[in-house]
## 1
Amino acid sequence: MLANISRELETHLPEGLLKLLQELGERARGRMEKAFLVGGVVRDALLRRPNFDLDIVVEGQAIPLARQMAKAKGWAIRTHPRFGTAKLSWQDFSLDIVTARSETYAQPGALPTVKTGTIHDDLARRDFTINAMAVRLDAVSFGQILDPHGGRNDLDQKLIRVLHRGSFVDDPTRMLRAIRYEQRLDFRLHSDTEDLLRQNMDGVNTVTGERLWHEMELTLAEPRPEKALQRAQELGILQRLYPAFACDEWVTNKFAQARELKEVTLSLSAVYLALLVYRFDEARIEDCINRFRMPGWAARTMRDLARIKEILPSMQMAEFRRSELFGDLEGCNPEAIAATAVASDSPVIRNRLWLYLADLRFISPLLNGDDLHRLGVKPGREVGRVLRTLLEARLDQKVATREEEETMVRESLCLPPRS
């Protein structure tokens, strides 16, 4: 008899999501198909960890089922017929419905070739045993768990185990995922899996930079990414990703300090990235960007970091104007500025960087272009020049009110004071 985890699902999932899964299961059954909840949400329900990222696999045709559901609920739907997948969206929530499939790999590191299959085929293509479990969703069998690879036992033993010996050869990015899960869950790699990882880590060179970056980005999004980075360094794969990467005591301490930042809203992932490469020179930063073909936000963070580091000596000067500090940092990525503040050993530099982040970057003139037109400023470049002068005056605390700004404009234009 198959084990049933309906109680765990009832405890783990909000009532609305539970009813949604039950409805999906019944709609699939009405179409003579079977729907299953799969992957991380099943794993985390058994671990009693929050996870509402729902993935549904259908033995049948996922897109028609998704369309039926979208029509009944009035939800948005996006389909990918080539892959037999659909995404349903409503408000701020979404779920993926996919057709059960099997996968084959033409060569190591390549993207897989897929074809329609059974739920057992679909589970067999997964990365680790703990992610290769599925739960029936129809009313007759709701909560029955399919666990053909021993995932539940590995959860109990706190093990990360691949499904077969060629797993890391087929998809070398699984090595990074294995480390991430190991550290996030406080598990350990099964000894055979660790041996396979050590034997195959050179396989990361067969994977595109974009795919490797995706795994790095997920690692940097972890609550404590330094744990996974340290483990990757210990195993030797961090250096395979990029030889200059290092997660030493300096990096781990700075990551911990970054988590204590309270002054401004920041993307911690971007701060972590900037700290990881903080000791790179500009040439190495460009090489790293090219290696991973980084997206715009990541490339900008790193390039702005290099720019900020160049102006740090002048930031040490005893005499400084707030408007000059603003001009030096204007347009720089806030996360790159925050990372520099965390990395710096100079209290003067730290204080000035935080002054910009917490205060100066939010300052603007109280007057706008329409106000200046009414005061007699000619349209065109002159408006921009006057607004910049007002901004610098506000930054340097020479004016504080609309009246003082108007007076400054009138004096610059030699206009009579307002009566």
Note: The mean pLDDT is 92.
## 2
Amino acid sequence: MSVGVVGNPEPQWAQQAIDAKAAAMNLGPPSSALQSIDFYTYMQSFQSGSDVYWTLQTGAFEVHGEIKRKYDQWSGASGFLGVPVTDESGTPDGFGRYNHFLNGGSIYWTGHTGPMTVSGPIRDKWASQGWETGPVGYPVTDQVRWRVIDPSVDQFIAWNKFQNGAIVTTKTVTDFAGLAHITPDQLQYLVHRAADNAIHQLPDNIGLYPDVLTTGVTDWGYDFEACTDRTVSFKLHGFHDNGLLGDAEFHFWFALKFSLSVDPGSLTDPWFRSLQAQLVPGSVGIDVDGISGWFANEDEYKQKIEAGFAQHANIRSFPVTTYTDQNQKMPPHDQVKLVVIDLITTSEGGIDFLITPEPPFAGTDGSYVPIIQRTLDDFVSNF
């Protein structure tokens, strides 16, 4: 089918190129007529679920599936990405898919992460280090910007989280986020202390032995907007005092998700956030040696452990920002500087805190990482 307008050959060129692309990719019959996005851009949809875009500058390229869904969310060719300049293609590592777009952006997809958008200086930095085969892997969020009161005055800071880190862009630098760590051993200690606190709040003669094991770490969980972080499973060893009947020993296990708290109703990001440990529903299990009235039935002991975590296994707040005048308890917002960007649960069962790559306002080492690492070490030892 050809389309033509007297004096403007572009619709005919677009239709011919789109027809050729559809035939080469076996897209099947069209589900729409040729559409003019603007004077230089044309698109046609196909029953296979693909859209094919054409411009004289780029030629014809297609998008489909979850990448197309994310692209449409960004207003397609009329949005900040512009038209596709590749068909959906497989990544060199064999796990993912991607499209590149005219205005310097890309959408990358895997079955674990979903479709995530990377653009601008962050994409350039990521590309310079090998894309998904580089040190941080695939993106697990679209670009995130710190929410501020007045963007024209306040600090500009934005980032993409990736599987193993983050890339941050500010007014002065675009670089990989620094990493401060809670090691797997430290996280075991925190979890044991939190679990012990929770159990001792229950109206039962329950105690814990000091041993704790990390039994597994999941992969990232698929989500269209932003992936869910890895979960870590732990196994602990405890006892129930049955008086003259002797102790009933038990092992119980559960999975936790870790995050920094966010108030979704706030228009700005907070200066203080809590490290949260959320019990994964349905993850509690238990083996009991001996007979104990406390373990009357499976549902009861699971409910008690879950109730204990929900009410008593809190992990405290710590600062994620700093500001120029340390004597001000409530500094003006334009003097506040975001330091801890976010966190990532590592595949080894620890937590990496993502630190701004900008140098601090004060200090000689040029990095916030040692400062935050000392804060975290103190946080763990004093928990």
Note: Residues 290-297 have pLDDT under 50 and may be disordered.
## 3
Amino acid sequence: MADVAIAGAGLAGPLLAVYLARRDHRVTLYERRSDPRAVGAEGKSINLALSVRGIDALERAGLAERVLAHALPMRGRMMHDRDCTLAFQAYSADASKAINSISRHGLNGLLLDAAEQQPGVTIHFEQRAVAVAAAEGELTLEGPSGPHTVTHDIVIGADGAYSALRAAIVRERADVHQDHLSWGYKELTIAAREGAFALDPGALHIWPRGDSMMIALPNQDRSFTATLFWPLDGPAGFADLDDAVEVRARFACDYPDAIALFADLPGEFRRHPVGSMVTVRMWPWTLGRLALLGDAAHAIVPFFGQGMNCAFEDVVELDRCLDESAEDWAVALPRYAARRKPHTDAIADLALENFVEMRDKVASPVFRLGKRVEHAVERWAPERFDSLYELVSFSTVPYAEARRRAAAQRRFPHNVAAVAAAGAARLRAAAGRKDPS
């Protein structure tokens, strides 16, 4: 049995605590914030899109049913054009598959509850991890009573995109790259209207404008969390836009069908902070008794809805490596990192590519036609063709493999002929079964 410290009690940290406690390890979670279950959440927390990878990780811990009870399924994108025209684009060929909107704050509370209920798990709030001596497992914390140190057999850094524990590896030998997007995000509230959803709750709503974008995801209280993705600077950016008249004028121009839906547009726009977005790539993820997990090792931008799902997959892979190594952490930690690195790099690239798709391409009639053709091919020969979106969001095919497979399907014209031939064969077989001769 190991004594494990986890720095960060956001999403991946508590889930990892549940997994490790089920292996009879003693786990201590250290979180810099106050207990989020005791305080409200407002301002800077993009709604999450829980999909198959994340659900798989939750199912393995016996938590999927509990979590999904607090989520709302979204079966496609609803595009809002400037002229207020709506266009729905299903995520899957038969429109049956959905990603699930869930509050980050609410999910954090559910996972903290689950971790706290496990024997051997202790959670300390208002304890910020600021440094670690990786060889000794000595963690330096800062809290209300000042700095102090604790020592554990293993230290897991799950302390987010701006991880303090990452620095211990960087100082030694890491190759690290942090690429900040020149765009930020700000959250606003679309209130329920007379107790009902103001928009279709079965869709992720997108207002793509090329030089800016807004999305909205449904909440269980029948509100929507709207997120602005704007450049930090420039004429379409956040900078210097705080006057109530100017804010309303911008929304009337860019989001005319939504301006009347906001609960407190000028007030929330003024109060809520602008969040930053960063892609982090580094190697290695381990040093001595220390390993990084989730955004601490591989932060990505949110445009494929995979940040949380990817971090939850890290937990599954680490658990698998502990199995394979008979709980030998010296073997399991580097093995986990080596296996995950190619796939986290792949989803980082895909998230950046999907940013361009959501911001620019979904508004194009040509793009929408292409999606309809793609879905038609999927229906025609589902055993031979899966779209990239299906492979990423509705399967557990490793990200790098999903990317390779989707690229191969698009790259070679003879694949289209193969798909058509497979579909024709199916039709002939069906016709043969109906022919009594």
Note: Residues 412-417 have pLDDT under 50 and may be disordered.
## 4
Amino acid sequence: MALFDGKKGLILGVANDHSIAWAIAQEIMRQGGECGFTHLPDRDDDPRQRNRRRVQQLTDPCPLAKFLLPLDVQSDESIAQLMHATADVFGRVDFLLHSIAFADRADLGRPTIETSRAGFKLAMDVSVYSLIAVCHAARNVLQDGASIVTMTYFGGEKAVPGYNVMGICKAALDAAVRYLAYDLGKQGVRVNAISAGPIRTLAAAGVSGFKTMYRRFAEIAPLHENVGIEDVGGAAVFLCSDLSGKTTGQVLYVDSGYNILGISEPVDEPVEQKQEP
């Protein structure tokens, strides 16, 4: 019997096949879990916006992908419609993955001190409040003992050059995880976060200096290896499953140990990285 046999849940945040949310969904479906997916709404005024088609190309071949619906997390009506549709298909859900964050490229690319007021509100609304709004709307479709997992980053704890306003958002997201874990604990629902090392995703492309950060990460991290989306997928399977039944309000690091360092040792010569099998 697979780990997620008979389990059903929502996957929010798949953009393409490089998305962390897609890697997590694949691992869950491999373990027998049924998943409902969302995509960013397409825009009629911009034919380049083909969000549904990109995600549908991934979900259509998967028998355990049960539906694909648009979701605008800045709209309470859109969130409510998703939950009504989820209840119609699944009844109640056992897990919910929130892998959603956004900041205007102009604000993300400038020093934090120069963040615009409008840009700050937008980043916090999409990257932080969306988790609160989704949890609130999902209360009636969550099974007792259900698990909610979101994605955070070390830049919410320490200053990471180039991460700027998104670092503030992740700090707020970490706090939201703890308070939501407290509120939903009465229902037996767990809320946790995964803090992954730098991974080449669509979102990472907007972070200034990401390529340099990614290259040096394996030189500095204790395991001397970069993190892959499959590593995050495995951690999420643990947090979304009954294996983590008494774990809530926590941040699970999947970063080759980078977060334990107080200061990195000087790198004179590149450290030989472990070869992928």
Note: The chain has a mean pLDDT of 91.
